[in-house]
Amino acid sequence: MAERSAPVGVMDSGVGGLSVLAEIQRLLPNESLLYVADCGHVPYGEKSADYIRQRCRHIARFFRAQGAKAMVLACNTATVAAVADLRALYPDWPLVGMEPAVKPAAAATRSGVVGVLATTGTLQSAKFAALLDRFASDVRVVTQPCPGLVERIESGDLSSEPLRQLLWGYVEPLLAAGCDTLILGCTHYPFLRPLLAQMVPADVAVIDTGAAVARQLQRLLGAHELLAQGPSRDTAFWTSAEPDALIAILPTLWRPSSNVQLLDV
Ligand code: DGL
Q1: Start-to-end CA span in the chain (Å)
Q2: Residues 6+ apart with CB under 8 A from 109
Q3: Which domain covers residue 19, as residue numbers?
Q4: Which of 20, 111, 164, 238 has its CB 3.0 to 4.6 Å from that of 263, i.e. a possible disulfide?
Q5: Tell me, what's the pLDDT at 2?
């Protein structure tokens, strides 16, 4: 039986899930958080679902060995590949996945055209097709895979000219198609909001699901009587690549921390 004071494990293929971690910490400041960046295997977006499932199994096992009371897949690509598998393996363990914000976008659009920026893995999945069937039958959804963006963000580049050109190549066709709502369907992309704001007209809404994930975690922990009463411990980080690389990028995407260890799974 997990304790309220046990930590929550949050994972992503790399640093993208830090955008979700920030929302969790904002909403649930009493929770102690563990973060795994699977940087030795990033990007997930172009890898097979089988490969990603194996990585998620290793990381789930690691979180459980650390005594985590819940796990958050702070990664859309990992969710479509692995959430069902993890739920079957650990039916009683609170697990939060995430999906592109198609439902709120379909409700918000005035032009009736919604754009989705996400990884190839997410956009090609049966789970994403089911999401469109369920919530987007009355709107037109234009999808845009974005190879290369994740690698740039992983290297700490949020504003270079080559990145701007790459991003514009993905965004321009969506604007040309009449999208008035853009979904950031990958947890790395919220770090590009400042750059996006320079290229997207002010009346185009840009939405992501980080805050909704934090609310879902709050609901789930509440239902299991596992909400922490605080105070929280310092967030601990693990990476499957070189810890110094994560230490170097944390001040840009999170805040300075040297509480970073090598994840050997
Ligand atoms: N951050 C991830 C997502 O939300 C995956 C990025 C990647 O590794 O390709 O989809």
Answers
A1: 25
A2: 139, 179, 180, 181
A3: 8-98+211-262
A4: 238
A5: 81
Number of domains comprising the chain: 2
Q: What is the CATH number of the domain that holds 73?
A: 3.40.50.1860
Provide the mean pLDDT of the chain.
97
Q: Which of 39, 56, 146, 186 is catalytic?
A: 186
**pLDDT tier, 74 (very low <50, low <70, confident <90, very high otherwise):** very high
**Does one domain contain both 187 and 167?**
yes
Please check whether residues 106 and 204 belong to one and the same domain. yes
CB 121 within 8 Å of CB 46: yes
The predicted model gives 71-85 an average pLDDT of 98
196: its two tokens: 């996006």
Rounded distance from Cα 17 to ligand 1 centre (Å): 8
Residue 1, pLDDT > 70, answer: no
Answer whether residue 54 is part of any domain. yes
